Amino acid sequence: MPVLKREEVKVPAGVSAEARETYLDNYLKATRGTGRLMLFACDQKIEHLNDDFYGEGIDPADALPDHLFQIGDQGVIGVLAGQRGLVAAYAADYPDINYLIKVNSKTHLVKKDQDDPYSPQLHSFEAILELINNGVNVVGIGYTIYIGSEYESQMMAEAGELIAQAHAAGLIVCLWVYPRGKAVADEKDAHLLAGAAGTALCLGADFVKVNPPNAKDGQTPAQLLHQASMASGRCGLVCAGGSTVDAQTFLTQLYQQIHVGGARGNATGRNIHQRSLAQAVRLTKAISAITLADAEVAEALAIFEGDADFTL
Amino acid sequence: MPVLKREEVKVPAGVSAEARETYLDNYLKATRGTGRLMLFACDQKIEHLNDDFYGEGIDPADALPDHLFQIGDQGVIGVLAGQRGLVAAYAADYPDINYLIKVNSKTHLVKKDQDDPYSPQLHSFEAILELINNGVNVVGIGYTIYIGSEYESQMMAEAGELIAQAHAAGLIVCLWVYPRGKAVADEKDAHLLAGAAGTALCLGADFVKVNPPNAKDGQTPAQLLHQASMASGRCGLVCAGGSTVDAQTFLTQLYQQIHVGGARGNATGRNIHQRSLAQAVRLTKAISAITLADAEVAEALAIFEGDADFTL
Amino acid sequence: MPVLKREEVKVPAGVSAEARETYLDNYLKATRGTGRLMLFACDQKIEHLNDDFYGEGIDPADALPDHLFQIGDQGVIGVLAGQRGLVAAYAADYPDINYLIKVNSKTHLVKKDQDDPYSPQLHSFEAILELINNGVNVVGIGYTIYIGSEYESQMMAEAGELIAQAHAAGLIVCLWVYPRGKAVADEKDAHLLAGAAGTALCLGADFVKVNPPNAKDGQTPAQLLHQASMASGRCGLVCAGGSTVDAQTFLTQLYQQIHVGGARGNATGRNIHQRSLAQAVRLTKAISAITLADAEVAEALAIFEGDADFTL
Amino acid sequence: MPVLKREEVKVPAGVSAEARETYLDNYLKATRGTGRLMLFACDQKIEHLNDDFYGEGIDPADALPDHLFQIGDQGVIGVLAGQRGLVAAYAADYPDINYLIKVNSKTHLVKKDQDDPYSPQLHSFEAILELINNGVNVVGIGYTIYIGSEYESQMMAEAGELIAQAHAAGLIVCLWVYPRGKAVADEKDAHLLAGAAGTALCLGADFVKVNPPNAKDGQTPAQLLHQASMASGRCGLVCAGGSTVDAQTFLTQLYQQIHVGGARGNATGRNIHQRSLAQAVRLTKAISAITLADAEVAEALAIFEGDADFTL
Amino acid sequence: MPVLKREEVKVPAGVSAEARETYLDNYLKATRGTGRLMLFACDQKIEHLNDDFYGEGIDPADALPDHLFQIGDQGVIGVLAGQRGLVAAYAADYPDINYLIKVNSKTHLVKKDQDDPYSPQLHSFEAILELINNGVNVVGIGYTIYIGSEYESQMMAEAGELIAQAHAAGLIVCLWVYPRGKAVADEKDAHLLAGAAGTALCLGADFVKVNPPNAKDGQTPAQLLHQASMASGRCGLVCAGGSTVDAQTFLTQLYQQIHVGGARGNATGRNIHQRSLAQAVRLTKAISAITLADAEVAEALAIFEGDADFTL
């Protein structure tokens, strides 16, 4: 199991002296002391509206927002990522979850052929500090940038400033960086994803979430991902497991992203919350076993199937 | 009759410690101690210009703005929602009304085929605090977001920050969320409305007003509304009664929205104020009887027809 | 003659406690103690460039800007409305005029078929307070909104905030609200003008200037204007006399706007300043006799022709 | 020779009480005690890139920026107008020049048929105060507005606020106002130029620079200019001498602009700096002799040709 | 070897009195006491995504961001230019490097035929001061302007204000100025590049990086560059060596830029970092030998080939 000692954490120079211990606390809490990030993505109620929460193949429990927090509370995760308002509505009843405030969001209604994507900052950084002052366990912030969009500049500017503010206050930052827009021919090109990862490093993020590349030229997605994990340097690469598939495939992909692709964690949303509470909880444990404790796929599968348990 | 105890109110974490009691006061005042919201919408003088106030089928009393305040004063409502300037002009003479400041507004002159809708924030949040400092009984704010508009991002950002500001100051927030724009094929699709409702939750609103869905696949609007009231979670869903119809139909719809659809209130404007003062006052009482006291439709109708009274 | 007692003034709730007496002073100064407004419009040097000041049918005296201030000084007016810079240049030599700072302006060079109109705020509100601190007799501010323009939202937002700022500082506000833009088929439709008037009320203006409606369906402009004066409620409706016509026609229109249409004043510019100083001064007195002292048209005409005088 | 006594200066009401003496100092320094302005325009290195400084017919000395300051130092001028950065780079070595900071600038690369002109404010007003605090002899600021551009509103707003800030700090302001854009058919129409001049007055400028009108209907440019100098009232009209011509023609035009057209100064750039240092210095003296000392053309020519000298 | 004494440095007037010694320290550190700038450009991970760091002909070491800092640490450079986030991530481990924060950046995904280039400011100036407060050895800032772009105005405004802020805080500024956009026919026209250089001077930059001109009319690029180095005056011209070529050609170009073209330094990125660490380190020394110590090309080549060493 990977262990990151407090003194080994590379604290960015944007972290103020007063906030240094807070940053270390937050970094170690978010990564559960491992330097790896298991991010439970709960921002889709804006991003995908109700598509991910209601319909065929989705457990009825997912129709209610409490579901997300129950999973976060009973499962094993690094952080629960959601918008400020969502977190503010439930955090008092789920005080132990590590929250990562997803600062920007957009709906998917306007399609790419109508307009390039822009996801706006939803509130000032001070609104996040207010949550912390009011006792919410916020350890970091998140922001999505669509590079290649005609609105790339607005998102780069908002993210750049938010990162400086977050670090000055001792919060960690995870960027979602997706190539998207009329100028982008292949959103899952491995070389382009490496550029996305490097962009996040240059903006100062602690972690960057990218989509997994498409297989190409006889290389697996995990092999191709390695270019990105090199490009992001000290910014830890976090990857989604891809579209919903069976648990074995999903966990195998996750394992390879880390052990072949050099990823330092994962970001998973609907693959988790579209299941019943019990199953979703077990899946968070299976994912965390791989991500945070270097478990093998078989061990993780046993956890998911309830044949073993995982705690930290 | 639903009763919400002070200690049962779910206070959002964005409410500052200093503002906690104020928030509880405002929440209970707005919902008349029930957790349900009867919102009297009086923002149409900008939104629809004079169309809702003058013309065939509209009582002549409605041509004068005082009419709105007289109804709010003599009827039974939760809040009167109007723009800051409108409220500021009359509040001194109607000090007991609970006011909800509708912060943004647009006219309906530019149609959707010319440009997607954007409704701008009309003033800073400080301008609302100034009203409160000057003694106006403001309990909350409102804001309209058109999701699917090309200007969705501007409204999401303005709303997100206003909600953080309002909660920090102890005010409640109601969002109006309407899917609208060239990208929106069916503004009254139940699944889309559920997305609208979830968006409001994620932005941190206490209440969200959506339009009622169209009947579909053998399901009534009220049945279809249930998806939205689940999606909005702790953010109470508030629904309009639909276009102007006879009182019985209107009150029946309202009853079903609450008891079938899971709504936690209603937002009604022209259905009320286009009537004579006496009739309008009785209609607010009939609506409130259902919304705030779980009255049956027949009881409410009797109140509307003057055969019974309703007070809180 | 209408007299408005100090205790009868409806002070908007946006007026801070500290500024209440200042507001009352300004309201009574601007309306000369009557509640009616005689506004001498002197903002055309930007709005119409030099078209209104030089050319056939215009008295040569109008070519020099001093002309405006001489009229304001020697005539009887409520307020002289001009841009901050214009007022700042001459106010020291004409200290007794009540000034209303017209905060936004645009030229007429870009026509509607090229782009919809937007008239920008020319400076911060603080720049107006600076004038007051330096001793200028500023009693209020003005702002033009083109509803129906694609830029309506920018003007609504600027006006909304300026009104809040002005009231907090004890200044009165007059909005000019004109329907204009590609979306507007008939700028002088009475029903639309009533919407414009109601918009001003909801934004919090003390007065609103609209153009007079076109005659329609056997109703005179003054009769049709009544819808607007009802819609604007506590926001006093102020109307232009229409295009330059002979004095009798002009004064008759003005009389009917007030006594038939319910207007609470007038806003007149080129009809006054395009005349020689003596004639212009007499015309301000004739207008004020009707507006501020309920004179009959014949009396006003006698004043204009020099056969009688009018003072307050 | 025109002499303006300190007590005769019309101080705009935007000048704060604390800044009054500073304003008087600056006004009298800029106008060399005459109320007339000789402005040496040195902002072309952005406006025209290197076109005005290098090439056929341009003295090689002009390739080096020091040339501008040597002329300003050895010649007789009212103010040297240049961008903040340019002035900041050289002012320590030329401390006696009166500097006017040209706050906005654009290159000429994007042509009118591609986009209407917008010249952006290059820095905050505070950046100018910083220069003054650091000892630079800044007496005023300048700003260019293209009326009739689709971006007119942005420039009007920036200029309007800058003028308020400058006056509050005791600095004088010169606006360059040029009609330009797709909506402008004739940039040198005398009536339109008068509108430009009036616009500057209404924004509060102390001086306005316009281009000279084209001759029309048997009237000379200087005769036609008179409409503009009337329209600008207390805002002194300053005019360019037109394109580079021989010195006699140039000085004759300048003389007529003042004595026929009512101009209160001139703004000249490349006509001066494209010459050798000695010749350029003599030309500043010839210009100043006419502008500041009411010299006849023949006297000025003698100064230019080195047959006489001019000092103040 | 060029030596610039502390008292010979031309301190811009925007440098505050309190920051004067800091500016002198930074200027002399950045130029290694010579007045010449050897800038190691490390901002391409956003500008070119991963294209410059991974692929054929690129040393595998370049795939990892540490490579850049190892070169900066072991080689001889003036400043390492990188985005705030990149510098913040590594600076604690490479404390002796002089850092120049590249404040704006864009990806190359949106091509010129889709939209003109705009590179946004990524964070406030305060975020840079925070780095300095936290102990990072930041000596200056950088910013790219695309003149001729339809977004030129935004970049000019951001740069203008940043320069004022940087000088007030004692930091030096290097602008990258590139003519680019639909309006620009030839980005490497020598006359246009001279305009670019002059623009930087007028904005107040200490150094300006331009691309080398194309040979024309029998003149070499270095000869043609001289127009630009004259136009930039006290703003030192810094030039790239052109596309990747063999070391001898590269060093010869560099030598001629300085000794023929009047350049005061160089800005080099991929030509350095695409090599192995050892080779890259030797190349920085060879470049610095020419730039900072007036070495001949043969001497520099010997250093590059390891036959000689260079230290300062």
Looking at this protein, list some descriptive labels.
8-stranded parallel β-sheet, alpha/beta, homopentamer, 12 helices, globular, 312 residues
SSE blueprint:
The structure is a homopentamer of 312-residue chains.
Chain A: H1 20-30, E1 37-41, H2 44-47, H3 66-74, E2 79-82, H4 84-90, E3 99-102, H5 126-133, E4 138-147, H6 152-168, E5 172-179, H7 190-203, E6 207-210, H8 221-231, E7 236-239, H9 247-259, E8 265-268, H10 270-273, H11 277-293, H12 297-304
Parallel strand pairs in A: 1-2, 1-8, 2-3, 3-4, 4-5, 5-6, 6-7
Helix content of chain A: 25-40%
Portion of residues in beta strands of chain A equals 5-15%
Terminal Cα span of chain A? 11 Å
Number of helices of chain A: 12
Greatest interface by residues involved = C-D, 49 and 50 residues
Main sheet overview of chain A: 8 strands, parallel
Query: What overall form of chain A do the CA principal axes indicate?
Result: globular
Low-confidence stretches of chain A: none
Note the quaternary state here. Answer: homopentamer
Instruction: Indicate the structural class of chain A.
Output: alpha/beta
Radius of gyration of chain A: 18 Å
Strands ordered across the widest β-sheet of chain A = 7-6-5-4-3-2-1-8
Mean pLDDT of chain A: 96
What's the total number of strands of chain A? 8
How are helices and strands ordered from N to C of chain A? HEHHEHEHEHEHEHEHEHHH
